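Notes from hallway chat w/ T.B., transcribed later so I don't forget. T.B. wanted the structure written out for a chain they're using in a teaching module, and asked if we could keep both sequence and structure tokens in one place. Agreed to drop them here.
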Amino acid sequence: MSRYRSVFVGAVLVGALTFVAGSTTHGQVGAGLLDTNLVPEAELVAMPGMTPAIAKALIAARPFPGIVDFNTFLVGQKLTKEQIDAFYLKAFIHVNLNTGTRDEILLVPGAGNRMVREFAEYRPWKTWGQFDKEISKYVGQPETDRLKKYVFIPVNLNTATDEEIISIPGAGRRMVREFKEYRPWKTKEQFEKEIGKYVDAKEVARLWRFVVIQ
């Protein structure tokens, strides 16, 4: 093999390895959709079905523990189904792929009974690569990518990468430091105690939704 051919083949192999390595690194929380528990009041008012009064009531009630609770709130505020559906195209409360209930999954726009079955069938979900492989068999990759915006795979507190921690809505660099500082994590009580030094109890509860100790 000539020197130039060797260089070319080597470059191709390096590029391929870089692509493969890059493709296995994913945040664990679906990107591309606002987290309802974090949207500023000024942005909420501009969303479908919102009024200044509803936005203030929404903020006072946050954080919502899940999308079912939030949906109940919106219904209580007299939003129509069409307004709620339109709101969910802008903001949502992500559903845990490994524990999400039928009622939660059915609130994901376009999920339906089929995704109730498929989301449950492949548990435990561990990576977005697994999600892409299994769900795209039924609906194709573009729809899989859309569904991905509404769900999350819990981040393992003891092994999560910086990127995985940053994928948690509102976590930021501070939580990257704190999550890693207190390893090994052993209990929810430990999490509440240590993270509670930096944020209030409501924020601790909101962050806890996205993590798991393994």
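Follow-up for T.B.: Residues 1-26 have pLDDT under 50 and may be disordered. Might be a good example for the class.
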